[in-house]
Structure formats: C-alpha cells, structure tokens
C-alpha cells in the first residue's frame, strides 16, 4: 500500500507501474487499463498538455463527463505538477463564468456540449478536446522541481448553496486522506465502483483510493439504480459509495430473490437507509459505513465495524481533532448542539484557502480552527450526530429543531418523494416550521394526513405548521436543494396551514 509520503499521483503511478504493471487498474466498461497503461496514458496526456503551454503550478479546467478522457486530463495535469480544476457539467451562464474567471486557468479540457458553454463565457480560454490527449510522447516530461505532497492537487468548487461557489484548494495529502476510513478495510484485491461524478471530491476519491491501494476502480458514467446490481456483478465490485438519495433509490427497487447474490462486501452510505439491517440482509452486506467529511476537510468522522448507532457519523479519525462550540467558539456541553470545528494533526490535509477568496478563507479559519458551518451533538460515548447546516437550523419556542430530522420523517410517508424543511417568521417574532414536498406518485400528498403521520414521529414543537406541495425543488448544480430560495419564498396562497385547518398539536399529544 502507498503511504502518505507517496501521495503524489505521479509517484503513485510510478510505484504500481513498476511493481504490478499488468494488474488491472481501471475498468472502463468497454475495456480497461493496467497500471502500466494508466501511467502511459498519464505521461502521453502530460506531454500534450505541456505542448499546449501548461507548466508546473498552472491550473487546468476539466469539464467532462466520467470516462477515460477525464482520467487522462486529471492524471496528465498532475504528472506535470499542474492543478486540476474540475467543473460541474451542469454549470452554465454566470455561475460558470464566475468559476472560469476565478480559477484563472491556462487551458480547458472539454468536449461538446460543454465546450460551447465555455466558449460563451470565456471565448479567450484555450480549449482542448480530450481525444487529443492520447497522442503524446511516451517519454516522461521533466519537472522544474519535485512535486510535493503538500502541493495543490485540485481546486474543487463547493456547491454554493448560499452564494457563489468557493474553490477549495486541496493538496495531494488531502486526496490521500479523503479515503482514510476505507483504508483499513480494503486491499489490492478489492474493486471500487466509481459512478459518482468525478467533478466532485467524492467522485475523485472513488478513483484515487483504489489507485493508491493498488486496487481496481470501475468507472461508469453515472449511478443507475435499475442497473446497479448488474454492474456490481459484471465487474465484481466489492465496495461502493452511495450519497444522498442513491441509497433510497436502491431500497425502492423491486426486491428479487437473488439480490444478496453479489460480490459487494460493504457500502458507504450517507445518510444510511431507513432500515439499515434490512438493507444489509437484502444485499448481502457485511457493513454499512457512515462518515463525515467535506470538500475542504477529509477524514473527519467515521463509524467502526459492527456499528449499532445508525444515525451517528461516527468518531473522529486519529489525525483529526474536533470540537463542538457556541457562537463564541466556546465548547458546548455533551448532548447540546454546537458548530463542528476541526484541525488536523497532519499538516496540509485541511484546505488552506479558498482560491482568490481571502475574506471567505478568514471566516472559515478562526482561532486556529476550521469552522465547518455544521451543527452536531456528541453523546457520552463520543459518537457524533449531524443535526443541520448552521444556516438551516430552526429554533421554535426555545427548542432547537433539526431540519434534517424533520425531513427524514416526512420522507417516511409513502406519498412523499422529496422534502425540504425551513423556518419562517411567525406573528410572535419566533419561527414556524414550513416543509416543501414533492409527490412520489400520481396523487399529491395530503397535508393533513402527512401531519397526522408526523404527530407520533416528531416532538410536538417540530411538527410542521405549514406544508406546500411543489412540482420540483430548486437545486444547485450538484443537485443540493437550495433552501435559501425556499426560505426567501416563505408561505403563499398554495401553502396549507395546520392551524387554519383547526389542527393543534401540544406537548400533551
């Protein structure tokens, strides 16, 4: 296994190409690469990029869907000691222009239809089709200096749910530690499914982790619930990452008698499925791993094998120090909500800056700690539980309400497909709970029935007063619901009011 001191992609490719050159490195669906092939592709791509004027330390935009072109652009850029800037393929218009301007890249590797969008917002930015990256010279390109593990590896733009996306500068060490909670579970014999978008740090990790462990990754364009088990069986996948609603889509697939007949050992799922043990039995899993990390900060929290606290994110990694604090950065008591702040025992793991955004960097790094903006609580055993994004938290009648917990219970109603919980001002200067929902079928959810469903599942103060059925939710390019837009929208003529309907819920209910 590669150690942290060899976390530079150039060194990783050199290592495995020398030791296991004929071992399978990447399954591409219609073919694949050995570790020797992977290095050769990286070297050829690096020479083409160098011929285009890319130098060590330069930034290269990559706006592509998952595929061999993405890997060539990424590894070729890294082989030169340049910095890859992944761009969400859904980006367009002003949001895309902001990223391009701020990144100040020397080249974009892209293809239709994304190339046209880039041309509209940055006509002067040179563009290169990924197909050109296969024709480079096979001789290793020279470096002006050695590439170090603390050098920038990527600038990854966050979702920007409250404003413009921020570019987190991440090092090779950060990429290495992003998969720390999987390293003690995996070895060269494992096969990792990489079906998350590579323009997200989580997607990059599903390739970087197996690359650094000498294992094989199975790169696919996207996650498809109906084909998931087919891919797992065809490619002998042993480990998979499920984020957001992916686990619910899988749980909702029609059960088959042979669902457990597959090579999967475990999945990483955040959040976990509604019934984790039933999910494990159905798919024949040894474990479901829970964790908490960020684009800016890998290796924060993770669960251990044999977990029983299914809503917990786990405990801090050995390299990470964490605290839960109030608005003055003072520790909160056990069991009380506080903002998670972190620092690492290993330098260069947490992002040192948001590229070109010194004010944003200063707001995140205060008093020697990185402020995540996430509210959590910790129990007596030291297990941490996510409550909410700090900006999404609600407080009603002196009680803290987790929008995540409300949404989780709302989603347990069969008529609801999606849910977003926000706080709205009430007539007393306090907050009331408003939940937006979409329908899971042909008939809209009945608000009164939904509230009755929630009465026994939520504390009385957390049961929504307002319910509004909408056709769709506003989303970021990374598919996160833009709650700030829903919060600004508030209640309207289409909003159902529980109190106006004569339904009161008290402490005694």
UniProtKB/TrEMBL annotation:
SUPFAM superfamilies named among the record's database cross-references: Acetyl-CoA synthetase-like
Domain (AMP-dependent synthetase/ligase): residue spans on this chain: 13-345
UniProt domain AMP-binding enzyme C-terminal: residue ranges: 405-480
Pfam families in alphabetical order: AMP-binding, AMP-binding_C
Protein origin, superkingdom: Bacteria
One of the record's GO molecular function terms: acid-thiol ligase activity
Coiled-coil regions, chain positions: none
Protein name, as recorded: ATP-dependent acyl-CoA ligase
Highest classification ranks of the organism: Bacteria, Bacillati, Actinomycetota, Actinomycetes, Pseudonocardiales
């Amino acid at each position: 296994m590669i150690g942290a001191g060899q976390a530079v992609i150039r060194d990783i490719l050199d290592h495995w190409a020398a030791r296991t050159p004929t071992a399978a490195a990447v399954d591409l669906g219609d073919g694949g690469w050995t570790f020797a092939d992977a290095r050769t592709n990286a070297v050829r791509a690096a020479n083409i990029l160098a011929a285009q004027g890319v130098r060590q330390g330069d930034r290269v935009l990559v706006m592509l869907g998952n595929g061999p072109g993405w890997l060539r652009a990424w590894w070729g850029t890294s082989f030169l000691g340049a910095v890859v800037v992944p761009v969400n393929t859904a980006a367009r218009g002003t949001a895309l222009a902001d990223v391009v301007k701020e990144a100040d890249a020397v080249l974009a590797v892209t293809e239709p239809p994304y190339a046209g969008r880039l041309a509209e917002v940055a006509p002067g930015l040179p563009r290169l089709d990924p197909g050109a990256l296969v024709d480079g010279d096979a001789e290793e390109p020279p470096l002006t200096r050695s590439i170090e593990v603390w050098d920038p590896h990527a600038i990854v733009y966050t979702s920007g749910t409250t404003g413009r996306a921020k570019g987190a500068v991440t090092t090779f060490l950060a990429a290495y530690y992003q998969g720390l909670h999987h390293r003690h579970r995996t070895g060269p014999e494992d096969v990792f499914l990489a079906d998350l978008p590579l323009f997200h740090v989580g997607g990059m990790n599903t390739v970087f982790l197996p690359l650094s462990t000498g294992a094989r990754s199975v790169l696919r364009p996207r996650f498809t619930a109906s084909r998931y088990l087919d891919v797992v069986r065809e490619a002998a996948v042993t480990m998979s990452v499920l984020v957001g609603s992916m686990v619910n889509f899988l749980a909702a697939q029609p059960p088959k008698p042979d669902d457990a007949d597959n090579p999967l050992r475990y999945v990483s799922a955040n959040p976990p499925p509604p019934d984790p043990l039933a999910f494990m039995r159905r798919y024949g899993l040894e474990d479901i791993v829970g964790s908490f990390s960020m684009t800016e900060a890998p290796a924060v929290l993770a669960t251990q094998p044999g977990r029983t606290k299914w809503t917990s994110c786990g405990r801090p990694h050995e390299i990470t120090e964490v605290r839960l604090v109030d608005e003055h950065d003072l520790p909160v008591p056990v069991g009380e909500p506080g903002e998670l702040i972190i620092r690492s025992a290993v330098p260069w793991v947490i992002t040192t800056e948001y590229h070109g955004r010194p004010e944003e960097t200063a707001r995140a790094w205060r008093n020697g700690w990185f402020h995540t903006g996430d509210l959590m609580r910790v129990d007596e055993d030291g297990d941490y539980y996510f409550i909410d994004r700090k900006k999404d938290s609600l407080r009603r009648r002196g009680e803290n309400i987790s929008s995540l917990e409300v949404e989780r219970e709302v989603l347990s109603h069969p008529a609801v497909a999606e849910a977003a919980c926000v706080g709205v001002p009430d007539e007393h200067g306090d907050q009331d709970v408003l939940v937006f929902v979409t329908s899971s079928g042909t008939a809209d959810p009945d608000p009164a029935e939904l509230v009755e469903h929630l009465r026994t599942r939520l504390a009385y103060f957390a049961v929504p007063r307002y319910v509004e059925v909408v056709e769709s939710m506003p989303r970021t390019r990374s598919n996160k619901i833009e709650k700030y837009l829903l919060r600004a929208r508030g209640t309207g003529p289409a909003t159902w009011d529980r109190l106006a309907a004569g339904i009161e819920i008290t402490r005694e209910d």
